[in-house]
Amino acid sequence: MPNADEKRLPKWPLRLALSLLVAVETFFIVMFSGEGVAENILMIVNSVGILLFCVLTWRGIPWSRWLLIALLLWRAANVSVSMVSHLAPGDHRLTGSLILLSFYVVAGLIISSPLGRSTIRAAT
Fold first, then answer.
1. Cα pseudo-dihedral 121, 60, 71, 23, rounded to 10
2. How far is the C-alpha of 118 from the C-alpha of 69, rounded, in Å?
3. Helices (H), the chain
4. CA distances from 8 to 69, 106, 118 (A)
5. Of residues 103 and 117, which shows the higher confidence score?
6. pLDDT tens for each residue of 66-80
7. Are the C-beta atoms of 97 and 87 separated by less than 8 Å?
8. How far, in whole angstroms, is CA 7 from its chain's centroid?
9. C-beta separation of 6 from 117 below 8 A
10. DSSP class of 91
């Protein structure tokens, strides 16, 4: 049974973050599949994992949000490494990459906050 503090927490920030993650990751799966599955297999696996754990987090499975956060950290690390490897300081793609990186960071913060805590309790 959720306590009074958990009942007062709004769930819309978590649901908005999960919905945006599903939209972005679906776009990435389509984009990576068009570029070739063999070259982008790790990114596709990461995107599918993020989609799966977004659904499980939405459903209130308690352990799924921590695995989702791990996958978001992996994606943020991939974006960071790609930025360092491929972008120069004056590159026009730098702004978009920073926005994408900040999106993953903010989504991870929302999911790891008390807003992401499941209200489903295990039966004892």
1. -170
2. 14
3. 4-8, 12-35, 41-59, 64-86, 94-112
4. 24, 21, 13
5. 103
6. 999 999 999 999 888
7. yes
8. 24
9. yes
10. -
In this predicted model, what pLDDT tens digit does every residue of 14-41 receive, in sequence order?
889 999 999 999 998 898 888 777 777 8
Q: What is the spatial distance between Cα 36 and Cα 20, in angstroms, rounded to a whole number?
A: 24
Query: Cβ of 93: how many Cβ atoms within 10 Å?
Result: 12
* pLDDT tens digits along 51-103: 999 999 988 888 898 999 999 999 999 888 888 888 777 788 888 889 999 99
Which tokens hold the place of 52?
């799966």
| Of residues 70, 87, 88, the one with CA closest to residue 79 | 87
Q: Are 68 and 14 in contact (CB under 8 A)?
A: no
